[in-house]
Amino acid sequence: SSGINAEYGGCEVDGKFLSGFFDKGSWSECMNNWAKTVITGRARLGGIPMGVICVETRTVECEEPADPANLDTETKITQQAGQVWFPDSAYKTAQAIKDFNREELPLIIFANWRGFSGGVRDMYGEILKYGSYIVDGLVEYKQPVFVYIPPYGELRGGAWVVVDPKINPDAMEMFADRNSRGGVLEPEGTVTVQFKQRDIVQTMKRVDPKYRELFETIQENGSHLSHDDRKRHVNELRNREAYLMPSFHMISTTFADLHDTPQRMMAKGVIQEILDWETSREFFYWRVRRRVLENDLERRIKSANKKLEHGQIQSMIRRWFIEAKGPVMNYLWDDNSAVVEWLSNAEEQDSVNENIKILEKDALLSKIDKLANQNEDISFEAIVSLLHRMQPRHLEEVRKMLNSAATSKDDSEPAQ
C-alpha cells in the first residue's frame, strides 16, 4: 500500500518530505494481507490517535489457497476491482470499526466506493450480511466518526447507505471535497431511469427547429405526400434524431451530474461542509479536537443528569459558550478553533464546572422530590434525620423558612 502511505502519511520527493494527511511516520496499516480492496489502519492527526478506513482504487488480486486435505483443489487467483466492497473487504471494514470502537478512537472514513459487488458468487459469499455488519458497527460507535469523500472520489449505491450519517447522527458527520461526487445513482443510471429515449425525443421536438419542422411536415402533410416523399422525410427525421441523440444524451448526463455535486449535497443537508484537500488536514485537526472535547464534556453532563438527551446537551453547551463569549460573538460557535480554545481554557472551565454542579444539584433535588411524592411517611422521617445532621446556621435558616411558610398559610386561610 505504498500509494496509501504516500497520500496519507507523506513521502520523500527529491530528498524533501511532502506531508500527507496524517502526521509524519504515524500511519500504521493493519490486516494488510487480507481483503486488499479496503485499507485499514491507525494514524495520528496533530497528535490525536485515530482509526482510518480508506479504499484501494486499483484492481487487486485475491488468492484463494488450495485445501491441503483435498488433492482435487488448487490455488485460485481472482481479480477484484477497486472502489468496490466485496464480502471479504466488507467484513474487514466491519471488523476494523468494532476494533476502533473498543479502543475508543475517533474514526475517519475516506469514502470512495461505487457500491457493493452484486454477482451471484458474492451473494453466496454473504455480501449482504457483511454489509449489514458495517451498519451495526457504526450504530454502536461511541466516538466521533467523520466520513470524507476525497478529491475526485465518489460515493454511490449501497456504499452511501452504509455510511450515511443518519445511521448514527449523534456521532457521525459527512464532508465532501469540492471536486467529489455523491449520490445513490451515477449520472448515466439516473438518465436511463429518469430521462429515457422517448423523453429525449420530446425535448428535440421542443428545442431543435429542424427536427420540429420535419416532424410537423410528416404529421400535417403525411396523407398528401407520395410514398417516396414520405419515406424521404422519415429518413431525414431519423437521421436528424441519430445526429442529435449523442449531444442530447451528453447534456442530460451533465445535468444529472449537477445533482451529485458537493454544492447540491450541501443544499440537501446530507453533508456538513465542502472542503478543499489543501486545507482539509487543518480543518479536521480542529474538528476532531472539538468533537473529542465535546464528547468528554457531554459524558460529564450525562453523569450529572442521565435524563438529558444528546440534542439537549448540545444546546446547553452552545448556551454556555455564548454566555461566556457574549451574544455579539455567537457566530464563533461555528469556528472549531474558537470552541476548542474555550473548552481547553482552565478559567472558562471553572464556569462550566459550576454549571455541572448546578445540574447535579437539580438532578438530586428532582430525585428527592420524586421519592417524597411516592411515600409521605418516609419523606417525613428523612427530613427529621437530615435536621439532626445539619449545622446550627442551616437549622436557623430552615426555622425561618418554616415560620415564613406557616405565616403565609395562615394569611391565606379565610377567617371563621
Can you tell me about this structure?
The protein is of the alpha/beta class and 416 residues long. Helix content is 56%, strand content 15%. Helix 7 crosses helix 8 (209-221), helix 11 (277-304) crosses helix 12 and helix 11 (277-304) packs across helix 13 (336-344). The mean pLDDT is 87.
Based on CA atoms alone, the radius of gyration comes out at: 33 Å
The share of residues in helices is 55-70%
Q: Which overall shape is indicated by the principal axes computed on the Cα atoms?
A: elongated
The spatial strand order of the largest sheet comes to: 3-4-5-9-11-13-15
* Poorly predicted segments: none
Strand residue content? 5-15%
| SS-based class | alpha/beta
Distance between the termini: 94 Å
Q: What's the helix count?
A: 16
- Give the biggest sheet: 7 strands, mixed
Mean of pLDDT = 87
Number of distinct beta strands: 15
